[in-house]
Amino acid sequence: MRSARDDDRQVRPTEEDEVAAAGSELIGGPAGRRALPGAGWWTPVRVIVLVAIGMFALGMVQKLPCYEYGWFFGATTQYTHACYSDIPHLYSGRGFDAGLIPYFDRIPQALSGGMDYLEYPVLTGLFMQIAAWLTPGGGTIQHREQLNWLVNAGMLMACTAVIALCSARTHRRRPWDALLIALAPAFALTATVNWDLFAVALTAAAMLMWSRGRPALAGVLIGLAAAAKLYPLLLLGPLFVLCLRAGRMRAFAVGTASAVAAWLVVNLPVMLTHDAAGFHIREGWAKFYTFSQERPIDFGSIWLLISQRTGNPLEDANTYVSLLMILGCLALVALGLYAPRRPRFAQLAFLVVALFILTNKVYSPQYVLWLIPLAVLARPKWRDFLIWQACEVLYFLGIWSYLAYTGSGDKHQGLPTEGYQLAIALHLLGTLYLCAVVVRDVLMPERDVVRRDGSDDPSGGVLDGAPDVIALGSAHRPRYAERSGVTSVRWGSGSRP
C-alpha cells in the first residue's frame, strides 16, 4: 500500500523519462531524491508559466523580419523568412482600421478582396475588435498594423500564460508535464500566426475545471471556447462516452447544458436581426459557417495531397470529410466502450480533435496549437512528443517555402510542389504516430505513463476512480490493477483501497 505522502508526491519527468533525464543535463542533471518539490517561490507552475512566456517572446523575435518590412513591402519576404501572420493583414483587410464593426458592417471589396464579412466566430471577432480599440491611431497604415500586431501579441501572451497554468494544474501530481507545452517549438512558431490561442486557453481552462469536478463551469468554458473556435465542441463527444460508461450522465448533462447556454448567450445578440417580418439569421454572423462549408480543399490537408497527386479537384470533399468524421467518431465510441479499462478524458479528447484535423479540408499551421495541450495530457512522453513536434516544425517551414515558390514568379524561390507534398505527408504521419501510441495506451493501460503510479484519470473529475457501469469489452479480462500489482487507485485528491 502507498502512503498518503507517496500519493501527494509530484512526479518528476527526469525520474521516469529517459529523454527528459538526458535533456536535464543542460541545467545540471535530474533532481536528486532530497530535492523539495515546489519549495520557495520557484514552484513548478511558476517555472512553467515563465518558460512559456519566454518561448512566446522568442516566437515574437522570429517574426521580426516581417515586423520590420516583410508584411508590407515584399509579397514573398514573409514566406522566405517563415514569419507570416494574419494579424496585420486582417487589421486593415477586415475593416478594423476603418472602424467597421464585425458582423454588422459589410466590408468594402477594395479592403477585403472579396470577403464581405469577418469569417471568424463571435468571440474571436470580439478579441480582434478589442485589440483594434487598443491600437493607437495616427501614423501610416503600416505603423498602425505593427502596433496592432504588438497589441494582439500581448493579449495572446496572456492566453499562453493561462494555457501553461491550467495545463500544469490539471494533473495534480504531474505539473512538470506542462513543460512540454512551454518548450514546444511549434507553439512558439505559430502562436502569433492567428488568434487560435484564445480558444485554446478557454479549452485548457475547461479541462482544468472538469478535472476539479466542476462540470457546470467546465461546460460554460467549452461553450465560450466554441464561440471562439468550433473545435472545442468536439470535447463533448468523449465526455458523453466516458460518462455513459461510468454512469455519470448527470455530470455530462450539466456540462452540455452549460456549454449550450454559454454559446447562446454570446452568439444570440449577434446572430439574430429583427425587422417587420420577424427575426432572421444575420448574414455577417453566418459568414464563418457558410465559409467553412463552401471553401474548397486547401493547404495542408490530405485532400490537397490527393488532389495534387491525382489531378482530381475533389469537388465532393465535404461528403468525404463528413463520412470519415462519422466513421472515426464511431471508432472512438467503440474504443471508449470496449477498452479493457475506461480511457482517460485527455486521451479521447486528443484523439477526437486529431481526427478532425486529419480529415479537415484545410490544415493551417496554427492548428497545431489545438493539439499541443491535449497531447501533453494524453501522452506526456518526451520522445513521442518531440517526434511529432519535429514533423510539425518541418510542415511549418514547408508551407511558407512552398508559398514563396509559387509567389516568386520565374525565380522559383522556395519549395516545389513535390517538396510541399512531402511536408504534408510528414505532418499527417507525425500526427498519426502520436494517435497510434495514445490508442495503444488505451488498449494496453499498463503502458500509460500517467497510470503507472495507480492513478485512474487525473483530468477526469467525476470520472476519476468511478467504477464502470457499461464496459462492453472487459467482462472476461483481468483488471489492470490486479495485473500490475496496484492495490489502490486514485479517487479525486485522495485514494481508496
From TrEMBL:
Q: Does the keyword Methyltransferase apply?
A: no
Ordered alphabetically, the record's keywords are:
Cell membrane, Membrane, Transferase, Transmembrane, Transmembrane helix
Q: Where found in the cell?
A: Cell membrane
Q: Where does the record place Basic and acidic residues bias?
A: 1-14
Query: Which GO molecular function entries does the Swiss-Prot or TrEMBL record give?
Result: hexosyltransferase activity
Highest taxon, organism lineage: Bacteria
Q: Where is this region: Disordered?
A: 1-23
Family under the similarity heading: Belongs to the glycosyltransferase 87 family.
Entry protein name: DUF2029 domain-containing protein
